[in-house]
Design goal:
By secondary structure, this protein is mainly α. It has three domains: 39 residues, no CATH class; 71 residues; 115 residues, no CATH class. It contains 13 helices and no strands. It starts with a helix and ends with a helix.
Amino acid sequence: MDTSEANKNNPTDTPVEEPATARESSQWLVKMAGKNERQSSNATPYVRPTREILPRVPPYSDEYRELYPLFRSKLQAKFEVDGPALGSERNRVFYGYFCLTDKAAMTFQPWIDAYRDKEEEFTVEKFFKQLDRHFADFGREEREQKRLENMRQGNRDAHDFLSDFDRTLHASRSRHYPDDWKKYLLRQALNQDLVNRMLLLGSAIDELSYDELLDRLRKVTDKLAAWDEGSKWREPSRAAVAQQPRAVDEASRAV
């Protein structure tokens, strides 16, 4: 290899000396590899362009105050996931402001105008605090707690009732309580039919968490609903009536 040709391929101005022996060739290759590695590490890293992943947050007008927790949760998720794509903290505050419409926007506009030029005040954290000050229902958790403690299934569909019970529990302060308390509230809320299905689980109830017990009850209910759906198209025979308790037992063991 000609020294002049090597110097043409060399990214630096330092001349490359041609190795004379095999040992020098090995040392020369190691030296060149280290030099190339240093040059690549000093290069400007490639930054992948950011883009929004989540859809735009639906606007909030304050016409229905019960929708505020849903709006707040979605806006918070948008900031957490798409924060880099939205840009600076100032940009994120303005994004949140433009998600407000009608009465909500008019209520919030004085705060925006008062602090838009004060960087220490115009932050996402203080934006959410101001949102809560205007739109949050601070008595909601206590009302949901009272509703939870007085819930009774009655004749309601089992699957719908279990979903409603779980939603109410997570909206109340009971979500912070131990699983034994949650299972106790669930037990007293169920009608006798669902209680009987629950009792088929036997001693396993004590070993299950609240979430596991809820999942099992849902599976038992869905399996029995499917069994009833298949049976209603034909007149039940004595054998079918006799099989129903066994079907309940099998559905419980299957989950």
